[in-house]
Amino acid sequence: MAKNLFDDFSPVSAKLWKQKIQFELNGADYNQTLIWNSPEDIKVKPFYDKEDTAKKYSISTKASQFKICQNIFVFDLDKSIEKALESINRGAESLCFTIPDEKINIAKLLERLPLGKIAVYFRFRFISIDFVKKIDAFVKDKKTAVYCLLDPIGQLAKDGNWYATQEKNNFETLNIIAKETASLSLISINSGLYQNAGANIIQQIAYSLAHANEYFNRIDTINKPIVFQISVGGNYFFEIAKLRAFRILFKSIAKEYNHNLDCHIFVTPSKRNKTIYDYNVNMLRTTTECMSAILGGADAVANLPYDSLYHKDNEFGGRIARNQLLLLKNESYFDKVDNPADGSYYIESLTNQLAEKALLLFKDIETKGGFLKLLNEGVIKRKIQESADAEQALFDSGKETLLGTNKYPNKNDKMKHDLELFPFVKIKPRKTLITPIIEKRLAEKTEQERLSEE
Fold it and tell me: What are the residue ranges spanned by the domains of the chain?
């Protein structure tokens, strides 16, 4: 029998480790030197051991089964079909179509796709019973997973207004769709809005779950997985733990409604830390963010092209983004292991703490009347803005770093003549029911100042 090498070493307690570290610090204060406090008020220590994971939540993540997704905005129908087929041939395993209006011929869009082999997501800029029924009629015998990412609350939060419908309200429309379609997953939560607007991780989890809870209370039939569209940022280990905490808490909440299906997590890298200057660094950022998504247990990952802030959709940027995921899946062996974060004391400790703090915030939201009530009162926007302002202050002072932007910028880098898209917050004055939650990147002010000086 092979000898266990660990038998040659005596166990070392956390207390002994800490004593050794304090000795090596040569008089420097342990807490001030080595412990830092995250925006979520989690104190991050220099080392972790099994004592930090005394309370462990049960979680299962299928990292080996994540699907590479390709985003496609449907404008020219024929070009969109060709792009979809080419993406599949080049490694995409699922497709996410953004549908701008009801004029799109959905049958023509889908008829040439290998529906039995890929999953399909639909993002809509409207809500329509008849349009969703057309999708259902086309795919019901195709044995493929289809997700209609319907999120009226997310529309209200982002736009300030509900979708326009013939029905009394958006929830009535959703209930009719749910009753009259059988093969589609219909409910989605645009969690990425909160991340890209500057919410901290505790807020992202709690707001998204409270957001989902509104649907549990208002939609009569939810017999398919709920899709969480989540954005991941650059805090590598925290983002892994965030996705794990999402699953834990969703399962706990869903059980109260006798909903026994796991949530479906669809991940895209955040825009908040992306830049137009030194834009190649965006590839490094999105690579680590995709890694966090996979290790955290995402069901599907759609990468963000490095030039998506300032270039229109193009073949090169899309191919590089897809190839980043192909490298992670096929050459980095991320498709070989399930539950890859298990056994990491640090990640498990973060998962526990994030879940506990987010659950407290979720309960506080429900005690005060629920997510929709606080959204209408402006509380959710105000709390996110407070977190965003705190992070912005860290960036402006140089304590939060974006390489190539507020640290080691290339003064010779010129971008004014390369901007095909407007990369900053767009102000569109109009009448809204509530003040919308605005997505804003950290580097916007700095970039505008640099552009004005070119």
Answer: 63-346
Tokens 């204060």 -> residue: 29
Q: What sign for the dihedral angle of Cα 152, 156, 158, 164?
A: positive
Residues whose CB is less than 8 angstroms from the CB of residue 353 and which lie 6 or more positions away in sequence, other chains included: 40, 42
Q: pLDDT averaged over the chain?
A: 94
d(CA 261, CA 212): 14
Helix, strand, coil content of the chain in percent (nearest 5): 45, 10, 40
Task: List phi, psi (to 5°) of 368.
Answer: -90, 10
Question: Which residue, 416, 399, 419, 415, is CA-closest to 407?
Answer: 399
Tell me the pLDDT tens digit for each residue of 248-280: 999 999 999 999 999 999 999 999 999 999 999
Please state the φ and ψ torsions of residue 120, each to the nearest 5 degrees.
-130, 135
Which residues does residue 73 pair with via DSSP β-bridges, in sequence order?
98
At 364, the amino acid letter reads D
For residue 4, is pLDDT > 80? no
Q: Tell me which of 447 and 1 has the higher pLDDT.
A: 447
Q: What gap in Å lies between CA 207 and CA 96, rounded to an integer?
A: 24
The alpha-helical segments, DSSP class H, found in 111-235 are 129-139, 152-159, 170-180, 192-197, 201-218
Instruction: Mention every residue, 6+ apart, whose C-beta is less than 8 A from residue 48.
Output: 345, 346, 349
**Residue found under tokens 């003064």:** 411
Please give the class, per CATH, of domain 63-346.
alpha beta
